[in-house]
Specification:
CATH topology: Rossmann fold
Strand content: 15-25%
CATH architecture: 3-Layer(aba) Sandwich
CATH superfamily: 5'-nuclease
Structural class: alpha/beta
Order of helices and strands: EHEHHEHEHEE
Number of domains: 1
Distance between the termini: 14 Å
């Protein structure tokens, strides 16, 4: 199964120290707008910036799909071919309406497929 990772999902994995072991069985991807969002966040001297820097290191180990435009639009566009990993409630709602599977962080402790 192919999984497409969103910005907030990557940051939350690191922030809440959730291991990626559960994702090892999947083929992991992200999109270039997510990488750009992470770079913008990483340039800030905040806690989120620190997590974004770590997320950029994770992203180096997965496949990046080149896209134009914003991340959410591209995630929705690619949703037919991937399971989308996101913690964004409004995006998850849109994906659920399309009957697309999502992976999200539940209770800051483990991953849930819905």
């Amino acid at each position: 199964m192919k999984v497409l990772l969103d910005t907030n999902f990557l940051i939350d994995l690191l922030k809440f120290k959730v291991g990626m072991e559960e994702l090892r069985e999947y083929e992991l991807y992200t999109i270039s707008p997510v990488v750009e969002e992470l770079k913008a966040l990483a340039s800030k001297k905040t806690r989120e910036g620190k997590y974004a820097k770590l997320a950029l290191e994770l992203v180096k180990k997965i496949k990046i799909i080149e896209c134009e435009g914003d991340a959410d639009t591209n995630l929705l566009r690619l949703a037919n071919d991937f399971v989308i990993a996101t913690n964004d409630k409004s995006l998850r709602k849109k994906l659920k309406e399309r009957k697309t599977k999502t992976i999200y962080l539940r209770g800051r402790k483990h991953l849930e497929v819905g």
